[in-house]
Each structure stands twice: as structure tokens, then as C-alpha cells.
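Hey,
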Amino acid sequence: MIEEKQTFIQWLEEVAVNPFKEWIIANYTNPFLWLGLVLLGLAVFGGTYNALHKD
């Protein structure tokens, strides 16, 4: 049989997405996780907002 070459997207999913998703599922009851995700979202929003509103 001929093995298919793994695409970059498949490799990224195996290396980063699946372990992160499993970690989120295992720790979804942790309030610090949600607080950290909200703060990270606010930081990204704030940085993007400031970058787009430079005069």
C-alpha cells in the first residue's frame, strides 16, 4: 500500500489542536482556565483595537 503524506494541517492538528482540545475538555470546570481565556481574549482585542486606531 502507498502511504499518504501527512499535510501540514493534519500535522498541526495532531501536534497542537488535539492535545489542547483534550486539555480543555479535561479542565473545563477550572474557573482559572476560563478567567485566563477571557483575559487572553481581552488582551488580543485590546491589542488589535489599538493597532487599528493609530492616528
